[in-house]
Amino acid sequence: MFTPKMGRRSFLQAAGAAALCAAAGHREGAAEGFRIPTGLYPSYVDEKTGATVLTLTPGGSTNSIVYQTHPMWLDGGKYLFFTSDRSGGGMAPHLLELATGTVKPVTLKDAGHNTLSWNTPFLYYVQGDALGMLDLVQSFQGTAEPRIFGKVPDGVRSLSGTISVEADGSTLYLGAIIGDNDRSAIYAVDTKTGDTREVTAFDFKVGHVQANPFTPGLVMFCHETGGDAPQRVWTARVGGDGPAPFYKETYDEWVTHEAWWGPDRIVFTVWPYDDRHKGLPHGIATATLADGPQGKMEVLAQYPAWHTHGSPDGKWVMGDDFDRNLWLVHPEKRERRLLTQGHLGKGLKTHPHGSFTPDSRAVLFNSSREGHDTLCCALLPDDWESLPKAE
Known about the structure:
The protein is mainly β and 391 residues long. The protein has a domain at 1-68 and 263-391. It is 5% helix and 38% strand. It has 3 helices and 30 strands. Strands 1-2-30-29-28 form a 5-stranded antiparallel beta sheet, with no helix packed on it. The radius of gyration is 20 Å and the shape is globular. It starts with 13 loop residues before the first helix and ends in a 12-residue tail after the last strand.
């Protein structure tokens, strides 16, 4: 049985921290100038934590955040990409202009598989068998036209595990079912020429395809089971020898909800699914590619966490729980404090799917506190110690 030795090595050495912070400026556009006009949006102060919480999508519509593994901000954070039914016709992509509160639908039909670029204003999407791209900023201004650049490869039975775009926008990655018993593959499609190549194939269902936001040619994905996979997190490199475990988990670990947190680091959760596992290391954890598959995970906060995300500046980690509380974690101190609570609406089971804003100063998340699904933003206080400490 594997038991991590806390304190065996420091969480982020000075060089690693500097690299992470330098790289963070290239993710979802630089955060310089990013600002949420707090007076524009309805807000309240969390009665238990004192944190200010903004409602970015007021009204009675159903709204949903982009999953924390994928980009959602564009043009330096001036716009927020999300899905909503506010325009009629079911859930569809929308853009919020942060400075004005203006929301407009994205004029694309039947493009359920889509992803933003990390560093450009383009939305990449699948429409039938066609692969296309659309400049969302120009679309918001009414001047953009979509461009078809490729097609879904022959032999694909169905797409699976999301789509994801390369850090430099040059390549779109598709997860796909290609054979019986969930045999899957990941394809790389050149966004200029449409040329397609198979990156890797394997005998399990692919899920959560995530191109590295910093390093071209590096893709993370998971063995999707809807539960506890025997080995959850995998990586592949374009032109490499095939898939390899990112961190080789043990039989006693239910690893889930992995997300990139730097060029070679991820955060994820280990779910303690029964009383025995609550006595084993669990909660929010991290691991690096530099340590190799046999490396050790480090537990940053031990509690029944479900989703997690790391801040672009490398200073914070957030996690939720099944009561829809959002926790702010200080990775170096291994300390957890309550950021906001009360986001489980009556009869609703909304998952927060929280993620940090580009400036690392707030957490964006789903909430059903108002009786419908809305997008909220909890501002991080200037004084971390003002938040209630986990017991």
